[in-house]
């Protein structure tokens, strides 16, 4: 085969290939249309959250062939987190699926940790909250404890715990546990009241713990004034007397001043009255002498001249 023939064959093949190319492009003319890219396929990835677990997001849209990512975790009282579905892997708290090619459900599961009861046995003069609680195995219980008035030296035992201020924290709980509180009673002192004439006081006696204050209601009877209350280093506010801190048996004294009245006599013609005036205390009798010619005289807190003769 000569060279000229081969060149003719190759030239014809080139022209034929060009023609095929023009047909594929819609012809050799101008104004050819553009190709629209295909719409990607989306799939839904849903989290099926088991008891004691968390997962976010709960649902998401993922492009076909792409992986989904979820944040997963455990609630208190659960362990052994297991995540399945989507051919993924769990690293820390992140679960990453394999390429998503269909709607997919991711399932989380966990194992409940056994819970134990921690209860408080309250001793006299103590307080504690909560009195009972459920604590997951291996966790610590926290209890707020305190003293009632009149008690000291708070002691808390049980659960291998420590007391810091008013907070008792146990060690890890591995079985039902009882916490015991106890305290020492302080000695009580007697606060008594001596009520003077014209006064009232209540209570007349009471027991007060060391360092505490006594409160007493005091008042005046009719015809008395100037109420005075002393003892116990206290203060009087209206009708309430409050002592200072009591550190020994204490007596509170209440006194008042009786009101006084002046009785003045006016003697009529031909009569005499002695004395002409008297100052009389509330509730007391008095006496006046009436001169000749008066029939009688009566004295309580008043006087009466019934008849006088010249």
Give a verbal description of the structure.
The protein has 310 residues and is mainly beta. The protein has 4 domains: 42-112; 115-185; 189-258; 260-310, no CATH class. It contains 1 helix and 28 strands. The strands form 8 sheets. A 4-stranded mixed beta sheet has the order 3-1-8-5, with no helix packed on it. The chain has a 4-stranded antiparallel beta sheet with strand order 2-4-7-6, with no helix packed on it. β14 (162-164) and β15 (167-169) form a beta hairpin. The longest helix is centred in the first third of the chain and has 22 residues, at 3-24. The chain is elongated, with a radius of gyration of 52 Å. Mean pLDDT is 85; it is low at 25-30 and 293-310.
Features:
four-stranded mixed β-sheet; 310 residues; 1 helix; mainly beta
Helix fraction? Answer: under 10%
Got a strand count?
28
Radius of gyration: 52 Å
List the secondary-structure elements in sequence, H or E: HEEEEEEEEEEEEEEEEEEEEEEEEEEEE
- Biggest sheet record: 4 strands, mixed
Strand portion = over 45%
For the largest sheet, list the strands in their spatial order: 3-1-8-5
- Global geometry: elongated
Low-confidence runs (pLDDT<50, min 5 residues)?
25-30, 293-310
Number of structural domains: 4
Structural class: mainly beta
* Tally of contiguous helical segments: 1
The chain-level mean pLDDT equals 85
What is the subunit arrangement here? Answer: single chain
Cα distance spanning the termini: 194 Å
């Amino acid at each position: 085969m000569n060279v000229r023939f081969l060149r003719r064959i190759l030239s014809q093949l080139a022209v034929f290939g060009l023609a095929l190319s023009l047909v594929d492009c819609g012809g050799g003319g101008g104004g050819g249309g553009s190709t629209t890219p295909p719409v990607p396929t989306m799939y839904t990835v849903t989290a099926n959250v088991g008891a004691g677990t968390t997962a976010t997001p709960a649902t998401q849209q993922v492009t076909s062939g792409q992986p989904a990512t979820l944040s997963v975790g455990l609630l208190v009282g659960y362990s052994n987190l297991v995540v399945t579905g989507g051919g993924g892997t769990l690293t820390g708290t992140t679960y990453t699926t394999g390429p998503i090619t269909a709607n997919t459900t991711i399932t989380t599961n966990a194992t409940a940790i056994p819970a134990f009861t921690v209860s408080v046995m309250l001793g006299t003069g103590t307080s504690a909250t909560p009195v009972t609680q459920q604590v997951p195995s291996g966790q610590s219980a926290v209890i707020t404890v305190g003293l009632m008035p009149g008690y000291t030296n708070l002691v808390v035992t049980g659960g291998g715990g420590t007391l810091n201020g008013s907070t008792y924290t146990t060690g890890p709980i591995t079985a039902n546990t009882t916490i015991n509180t106890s305290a020492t009673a302080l000695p009580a002192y007697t606060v008594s009241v001596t009520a003077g004439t014209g006064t009232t006081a209540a209570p007349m006696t009471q027991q007060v713990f060391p360092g505490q204050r006594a409160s007493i209601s005091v008042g005046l009877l009719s015809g008395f004034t100037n109420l005075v209350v002393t003892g116990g280093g206290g203060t009087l506010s209206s009708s309430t007397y409050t002592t200072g801190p009591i550190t020994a048996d204490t007596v509170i004294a209440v006194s008042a001043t009786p009101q006084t009245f002046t009785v003045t006599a006016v003697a009529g013609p031909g009569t005499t009255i002695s004395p002409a005036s008297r100052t009389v205390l509330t509730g007391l009798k008095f006496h006046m002498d009436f001169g000749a010619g008066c029939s009688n005289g009566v004295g309580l807190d008043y006087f009466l001249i019934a008849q006088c003769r010249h």
